[in-house]
């Protein structure tokens, strides 16, 4: 039973446009959400996070939106750049202060930025 | 570069064998987690070590075990390898109190034949 779902295996966006990656979760115990980016032959790299007490968090070109009632979050990248081409993973955890349950990841979305 | 290293990079084993994978954590990080990433899937939490004790485990059988050493390096051991154990194994280190500053290593690609 997948608790974190990324329903788009891939997404192609033109350079300079907005990229929107979506993620849904089913476990209402999750209260901290993270996005990771992964290049081939490298481990995932942390991008941005959001606590369930917020509905938006921004960091430069990256913004994450959280809709708790819909159990849905999205990552917006504006403007999209060629270096953004990678696999993006949505992850969730119970508590932002660490804890022993690990992160629960979605399957990832492969973002391709077209020149 | 995250400062987390893993060895070996690639490994081929046969079914029934045992394997040990190694991870060297980021300096100052006292918590290490291991994840299994099968092809086309997201990383799946195996277990976590804090101060040399396992303090969290995902849905993995006991033949997956680990160690964390005083210098915060760690090992993942898998006994009685099965074909489905073929995957990328990632370790991640962090300070106990913070979730998002979790640094992943590049992973070890294990193939079980």
Features:
heterodimer, A: 115 residues, mainly beta, six-stranded mixed beta sheet, five-stranded antiparallel beta sheet, 11 strands, B: 113 residues, 0% helix, globular
Task: Record the SSE blueprint.
The complex is a heterodimer of chains A (115) and B (113).
Chain A: E1 4-5, E2 10-14, E3 19-25, E4 32-38, E5 45-51, E6 56-59, E7 62-67, E8 72-77, E9 86-93, E10 104-105, E11 109-114
Parallel strand pairs in A: 2-11
Antiparallel strand pairs in A: 1-3, 3-8, 4-5, 4-9, 6-7, 7-8, 9-10, 9-11
Chain B: E1 5-7, E2 10-13, E3 19-24, E4 31-37, E5 44-50, E6 53-57, E7 64-68, E8 74-78, E9 87-94, E10 103-104, E11 108-112
Parallel strand pairs in B: 2-11
Antiparallel strand pairs in B: 1-3, 3-8, 4-5, 4-9, 5-6, 7-8, 9-10, 9-11
Provide a descriptive summary of the structure in words.
The complex is a heterodimer of chains A (115) and B (113). Chain A is an all-beta fold. In chain A, 0% of the residues lie in helices and 52% in strands. Chain A has strands at residues 4-5, 10-14, 19-25, 32-38, 45-51, 56-59, 62-67, 72-77, 86-93, 104-105, 109-114. In chain A, the strands form 2 sheets. In chain A, strands 2, 4, 5, 9, 10 and 11 form a 6-stranded mixed sheet that branches. A 5-stranded antiparallel sheet of chain A has the order 1-3-8-7-6, with no helix packed on it. The model of chain A has no long low-confidence stretch (mean pLDDT 94). Chain B is globular, with a radius of gyration of 13 Å. In chain B, the strands form 2 sheets. In chain B, strands 2, 4, 5, 6, 9, 10 and 11 form a 7-stranded mixed sheet that branches. A 4-stranded antiparallel sheet of chain B has the order 1-3-8-7, with no helix packed on it. Chain B is mostly beta strands and 113 residues long. Chain B has strands at 5-7, 10-13, 19-24, 31-37, 44-50, 53-57, 64-68, 74-78, 87-94, 103-104, 108-112. Chain B has no helices and 11 strands. The chains are: A mainly beta (115), B mainly beta (113).
């Amino acid at each position: 039973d997948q608790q974190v779902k990324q329903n788009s295996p891939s997404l192609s966006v033109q350079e300079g446009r907005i990229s929107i990656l979506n993620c849904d979760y089913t476990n209402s115990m999750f209260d901290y959400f993270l996005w990771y980016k992964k290049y081939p032959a490298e481990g995932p790299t942390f991008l941005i996070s959001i606590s369930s007490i917020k509905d938006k968090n921004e960091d430069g070109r990256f913004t994450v939106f959280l809709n708790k009632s819909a159990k849905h979050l999205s990552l917006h990248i504006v403007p999209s750049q060629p270096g953004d081409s990678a696999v993006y993973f949505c992850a969730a955890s119970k508590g932002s202060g660490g804890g022993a349950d690990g992160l629960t990841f979605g399957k990832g979305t492969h973002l391709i930025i077209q020149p | 570069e995250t400062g987390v290293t893993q060895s070996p990079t690639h490994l081929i084993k046969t079914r029934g064998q045992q394997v040990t994978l190694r991870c060297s954590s980021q300096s100052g990080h006292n918590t290490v987690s291991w994840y299994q990433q099968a092809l086309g899937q997201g990383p799946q939490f195996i277990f976590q070590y804090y101060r040399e004790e396992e303090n969290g485990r995902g849905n993995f059988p006991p033949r997956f075990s680990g160690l964390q050493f005083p210098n915060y390096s760690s090992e993942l051991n898998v006994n009685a390898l099965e074909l489905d154990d073929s995957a990328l194994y990632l370790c991640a280190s962090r300070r106990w109190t913070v979730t998002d500053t979790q640094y992943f290593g590049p992973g070890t690609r294990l193939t079980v034949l």
